[in-house]
Amino acid sequence: MRYFCFVQFNFKDIFLASTIIIFFALISMHSSSCRNGEQENDSLLIPYLNDPAIKAITEKINEDRDNPELYFQRAQEFMRMQKVLPAYKDIERAITLDPENKNYLFFKADMMLSDGYAEGAKESLVKILAIDPYDMIAITKLAKVYLYAKDYENSLIQVKKLIDKDKSNFEPYFIAGLNYKEMKDTAKAIEQFKVSLQFKPDFYDAYMQLGLLASAQKSPLADQYFDNAIRLDSTVPESYYAKAKFYQDSKRYKEAKQIYNQLIRVSPQNANAFFNIGFIYIMEDSIARAKKYFNYAVQVNPIYADAYYYRALCEYELGEIVLAKSDLTQCLALDPDNDKAQNLFNTLNKQ
């Protein structure tokens, strides 16, 4: 015998049943939204599945979609490939699954900053400091992010926190120096860079900053600072270039050419070094030699508009009018707003 049970529902029962139905409907909608998001992410991955590392991690994710570490690993691989958008989607997914993982937040901050998005980097670092207010790495990075965003006041606030925690740490003094340099307070900038050297005597970047500031002040101390930078790392072109440019601006042309030639030995494709030697020879009225170095400059960098202009100027002085016109045409094709080239071209056309 089948028994039928007739149940009488009151208003409370109806309300409860309705609530349960709505609850499950919302879950269903959320699941559908997640599936749609996953499908969107999956479609985004298609162009990258030829990469063995991406393919291997994706297969693991398909088996375990709630494992944040797998999304983090894939985000790292995407950044290795310089693919920011899929990396961003993966690190966001990892953070959603594990919101207090500092490694994920640090990665996102670095990724945001590498893409020029200071606000995004700041947001991630602030979240780290909400988790751990004494994380010195996060405070240091935040000081740099504020500096990058030209928010010098807040950058210096973070610097003070770092110095209060460890007065012998060279890095906050250096960051402070960069802030004061950007604020055009040269005296304080120099003071801070010197303090950073007290705690790290082999600090290449501090010597370079001091050299650049001394160079701008036309101080003979620039020599010493650039020499120390070169001594610490003789493979970096910027220190040679800065020292040579200091000599050039000081009209110490012989010394400038010597350092530019050292730079060329370190960096044979440095078009600026060839160009500047050529420019110095113009200053010394050695037009044929100048042209030779502008030749080198355009060989190394075929889109160097100014090198074509100055080579044309040399050719004009040497009476090589056809060659001069050709170089001016090339210069103007690369830099249509170059008034000097246009004026010289007009002059040659009137002759």
Descriptive notes:
The chain is an all-alpha fold and 351 residues long. Among the domains are: 57-133, Alpha Horseshoe (Serine Threonine Protein Phosphatase 5, Tetratricopeptide repeat); 202-268, Alpha Horseshoe (Serine Threonine Protein Phosphatase 5, Tetratricopeptide repeat); 271-351, Serine Threonine Protein Phosphatase 5, Tetratricopeptide repeat, CATH 1.25.40.10. 78% of the residues lie in helices and 0% in strands. Helix 8 packs antiparallel against helix 9 and helix 9 (170-182) packs antiparallel against helix 10 (186-199). The chain is globular and about 75 Å long.
Oligomer: single chain
CATH architecture annotation name of the domain at 271-351: Alpha Horseshoe
Bulk shape:
globular
Approximate strand percentage: under 5%
Question: Which H/E pattern describes the elements?
Answer: HHHHHHHHHHHHHHHHHHH
Descriptive tags:
single chain, 351 residues, mainly alpha, Serine Threonine Protein Phosphatase 5, Tetratricopeptide repeat
